[in-house]
Amino acid sequence: MNDASSPSILGLAVPDFSLPATSGQTFRLTALRGQPVVIYFYPKDSTPGCTTEAGQFRDLHAAFVNAGGSVWGISRDSLKSHESFKAKLDLPFELICDADEQACALFDVIRMKTLYGKQVRGIERSTFLIDRQGRVARAWRGVKVDGHAAEVLAALQAL
After folding, report:
1. Residues 17-69: pLDDT tens digits?
2. Active site residue ranges
3. Of 29, 17, 14, which is closest to residue 98 (Cα–Cα)?
4. Which fold has domain 18-158?
5. What are the residue boundaries of the structural domains of the chain, listed by start?
6. How far apart are CA 43 and CA 47, in angstroms?
């Protein structure tokens, strides 16, 4: 089981934030109060792991909606990149642009990583399930993609 829940943030209220999203939308956490929200952070559009992860959330999207939740992907990529990625994969959910790392800082997902032998700052693949009251119900860090969306769905259904 890949639940690396951070006890330090479980149960804490997530401060409101507002960021641009695909389809001309603006993501605002308080606008979603009253429904569970899944926010998954991923490193980069159109990379193999991120494509697989987005596809798994896409394939289970109807079940997330049936459970009363919404799914949002977030990375530091531009809206143009997000729109292309969303169209290519036919994603039924929106992608949030966090170019200034506002949400990344809020959820503490930026880490030093090794890429081709060099140290780079990047997003640690992480997912957060926020309950109807806006509190962190579950947190997964250092996510392994395979089967992750199904695990998040099961946690949402158990709320």
Report:
1. 999 999 999 999 999 999 999 999 999 999 999 999 999 999 999 999 999 99
2. 50
3. 17
4. Glutaredoxin (3.40.30)
5. 18-158
6. 8
